[in-house]
# Entry
Amino acid sequence: MTFLIAAAGTGGHVFPGLAVGEALLALGTPQESILYVGGDRLEKSVYPDSGFAFLEVEVRGLQRSMTRRNLSLPRVVWRARDAIKAAIHEREVKVVLGMGGYVTIPAALAARSSGSGLLVAEQNAGGGLANRVASRWATRTFTSFPHTEGLERGEWVGNPVRRALSSLNRAEARPRAMAHYGLDPGYPVLGAVGGSLGAGVINAAVEDLVTRWEWSRIQVLHLTGEGNVGTDESPSHAVHWVQRAFEDRMELFYSACDLVVARAGGGVAELTVTSTPSILIPGEFGSSGHQAANAAFLKGAGAAEVLAQERLDRLPGLVSEILLSPERLEAMRIGARTIAKPDAAMKIAEAMQELVR
# Structure
């Protein structure tokens, strides 16, 4: 075993981590030479289902409120560090990559005490606490934005996305995508996705939009999250509303959508590499208000509009201004392309291999 990737928790950590593993495979690394480490959330199924070895450890972060659970946190971190350190020695791991989040700290501690090389990758415009700590010991730190608060030594390579997205030919894939969702190619498509956090707010906003829509006919492709799928029957005759709980082939989703309403986590990289115009609704969860900074970067490039959560009543009007204007959509696609970094996963994978040579 040569490489260990620590990526856990939300899709914003897990899928970029998976993208790096896929890039290592493309560079000739055997799959059995890649070990993923995480907790018992999304990563527990994603990595094994993709054919990778997976080590589960207990991980959790510091609670921001005063709670007794914080007293046991050091013990949890040291136990996870010891389990990861044992795996490093057993599998002869040479390089550890931390993707941020709770599991990065014990992984970084294990790498440091084992003499393995350490790299860190940050998905947001504000460095998370784990990466700000781990980057002090890292040989190199990679960022998804040109200026990432808290990570002064960061190298801007972009946020890793899976090859199916980074190499997407939207025009070629669109007919297949429209057929997959039962959409009519003659009408524009608004996509909506809440991500693994904050889906309830997005879902409520989309339902409100569908109910209040008063402009020309559109279609809404809505990824609601598990347990939230309702009937596709729309309250408005001017909207064809298609709901799905989850989409594991996101290249189809982006190919079908002309405009996407979404949160502004690290997943905004998928919007840029697929040249998808967006309306971003930053969430206030996470560290350092990073979603607002992520959204501001895309807006500055002309790739997105930003709508504060407390102003969601303006969403239908804003959607009509953008979705029904081919010129506005094209300008936003160009803006997205100018900041896209489709080769991020490959650059990080190459850096991992360089540390072994």
Q: What stands out?
A: The chain has two domains: 3-164+342-356, 168-339. Residues 62-68 have pLDDT under 50 and may be disordered. The first helix runs from residue 11 to 26.
